[in-house]
Amino acid sequence: MKIWVDADACPAVIKEILFRAAERTGVRMTLVANKPLRLPAIQNVRSLQVPTGFDAADKRIVELMEPDDLVITADVPLAAAAIEKGGVALNPRGELYTQENVRERLSMRNFMDELRSGGVNTGGPAALSQRERQLFANQLDRWLAKRAKIAGSP
Questions:
Q1: What's the rounded Cα separation, in Å, for the pair 17 and 25?
Q2: For 23-31, which contacts have Cβ atoms below 8 Å and span 24 or more sequence positions?
Q3: Helices (H) and strands (E) in the chain, counts
Q4: Considering the entire predicted model, what is its pTM?
């Protein structure tokens, strides 16, 4: 089981949590972006640069991921594709996407896109709160514990 990070829009504080977890546990993690990334010198952490283009990073993540891999993304269509492929998707705000809630999120995303294209200013997301950072770290720890349990089983 590996971690895939939709790195173009992932907050730096979330990347730091991920780097510490990867270093502590040895889990393989790949950050996918359409620009070069600066990474700490951690053997099991790498980056993958994709060409600039609409959803290029998302498509590459879905192409390379395997069932039970963890995808870190705020992009709802990517989360839906990851779940459809048997993966786990986690929002940087700590929300674990499920079969049920990802459909609801897609509907809301499409509705907001319609409002914006109609000229309505819907604003952007609020700043990442300390509570959301902790929620993210807790969800990540749960996935890592499951991974460790599976890896340790005969």
A1: 12
A2: 25/144, 25/147, 25/148, 27/1, 27/2, 27/3, 27/144, 27/147, 28/2, 28/3, 29/2, 29/3, 29/4, 29/5, 30/2, 30/3, 30/4, 30/5, 30/64, 31/5, 31/7
A3: 5, 6
A4: 0.85
- Give the Cα separation of 75 and 82 in Å (integer): 11
Hey, what amino acid is at 34? N
Exposed, middle or buried: residue 140 (CB in 10 Å: 0-12, 13-18, 19+)?
Answer: buried
* Cross-strand pairs, 48: 32
CA dist., res. 78 & res. 4, Å (int): 11
Transcribe 87-111 into DSSP letters.
Answer: -EEE-TTSPEE-HHHHHHHHHHHHH
Q: Which two tokens stand for residue 71?
A: 């995808």
Instruction: Name the amino acid, one letter, at 57.
Output: A
SS3 37: coil
Give the pair of three-digit tokens for residue 131. Answer: 């509570």
pLDDT at 127: 80
* 114-127 pLDDT per residue, tens: 666 777 676 666 78
